[in-house]
Amino acid sequence: MKFPEPLVSGRLVKRYKRFLADVTLDDDGAEITAHCANPGSMLGLKEPGSRVWLSRSDNPKRKLKYSWEVMEADGALVGINTAHPNRLVEEALEAGRIAPLTGYHSLKREVKYGKNSRIDILLEGEGGSKIYVEVKNVHLMRQQGLAEFPDSVTARGAKHLAELADMVGEGHRAAMVFLVQRPDCDRISLAADIDPTYAAAFDVAEAAGVEVYAIGCDVRLDGIDAVKPVEIST
Questions:
Q1: Which residue of 1, 26, 106, 117 has the lowest C-beta tally within 10 Å?
Q2: Which segments in the chain show pLDDT lower than 50?
């Protein structure tokens, strides 16, 4: 995934109201408000003064011209925009980078399923076979090299796990793909202390046959690509 235009650099003033971030731009020192497309807590990624990079849109219909895309944390570039993971995983699937999920002939996004939900990616193969793929963004790191999910309580995430298990019960394959948007992590585990309910739901889903994969990203200022397997330690 390439950013369409060069990113704009700055320093984070504060992140607030979940979807807003004030940033001081490097080029002219102006303080602007950027859209923060990230509903999580962003634990460890909202320190004032952090180096950040923003994309800019000239769409006159947008209230905020800037979107927060990347930041520097623990000496690495970290992707924080949760609008990108589905696209990144789709590109990885099409490139065959998640080997157990290859061999399909159709890929669809945001297909209705379950109880009033939409699956992130639906893969369809010969004979009507289906693989339901749910994507979760990961960028929490509290221990060097170890990514963790979630970074806040996610009742929605637990619901998705239950619905994936239901698809397995109906005779389909279902997979949870964790997308790690930071290159300094080569392992991932569940943050059970943050959300024990999600961790319990994960165990139930995995026991029911839901497959689990994790893929890490190469994060650059010109783009982000999901390129490397990440070890799952649960």
A1: 106
A2: none
